[in-house]
Write a structure and sequence with these properties.
The chain folds into two domains: about 35 residues, no CATH class; about 240 residues, 3-Layer(aba) Sandwich (Carbamate kinase), CATH 3.40.1160.10. Helix 3 runs antiparallel to helix 4, helix 6 packs parallel to helix 8 and helix 7 packs antiparallel against helix 8. The protein is α/β, with parallel strands linked by helices. Strands 5-6-4-3-7-11-12-10 form an eight-stranded mixed β-sheet, sandwiched between helices. Strands 1-2 form a two-stranded antiparallel sheet. A two-stranded antiparallel sheet has the order 8-9. It starts with a strand and ends with a strand. The protein is globular, with a radius of gyration of 21 Å. Strand 3, helix 2 and strand 4 form a beta-alpha-beta unit. It contains nine helices and twelve strands.
Length: about 280
Amino acid sequence: MALQRDRDGKRLHVKSKLMGESLVSKRFVESLPLAPQVRLFPDVHVLKVGGQSICDRGVKALPGIIREITANKAKHKMLLTTGGGTRSRHIYAIGLELGMPTGVIAKFGSSVSEQNALLVAMLLSPWGGIKIGHDEIVKLSTYFSQGCIPVMHGMPPYDYFAIPPETGRIPIYRTDVGTILLADLIGARSCIFIKDEKGLFTDDPKKDPKATFIPEIGAKTLLDKDQDDLVVERPCLEILQRSEVLEHIQIVNGMEEGNITRALAGEHVGTRIFRE
């Protein structure tokens, strides 16, 4: 690329569409032409193993989940993430009582989510389970070519730089958000959240027996409804709406045998939240 000086002759620029532009200009960013986003791993399914819903149940849930995942290994490439669960809530509570900032609270959450990633990877180790870090995304091709099932902790790596929420100090970008960000990054074939509930309800069915099941809904519609409780972290809906590569996310009850297999096969099981 050619080098070009400013009009005052003081600064050198590499000639490009961004030369000398302000990246905070809303008008400029909106006018900037973009190539379509490349789907780096369009044949990979991203599955999140819930922390509180699955990992915390231990032997009552994880062996069945592991069996179903390994049974699908020959047909599907899978990249797993893990939630934090009850232990993350415990350390959040202690940190909040002691006045810790959002970034430290987020770092706590990462460490607990990573414990669950290690747990799931070890259970999967006879079938190629391997725990990986966020910076090992560039090695995914190697892991898949060797028949591995990579497992990564779901907390997005904001850590100490987590964005403070409008209310309180609990980070709003947690393991659900990390999972959908990962799926968007690699252009995944699907993004499946494995939980202990059928899917999305009008309220938390564990607290409200009159809550109604929602099999399918648009992300924008769900945001506009502004429900008090959701089955996934609220920012996931905004990320899905902005995604160029994800058409929907799916929430399934992993406690019911066969649901993960059906979701991997593209069947509508549980709740689908689609990009509108």
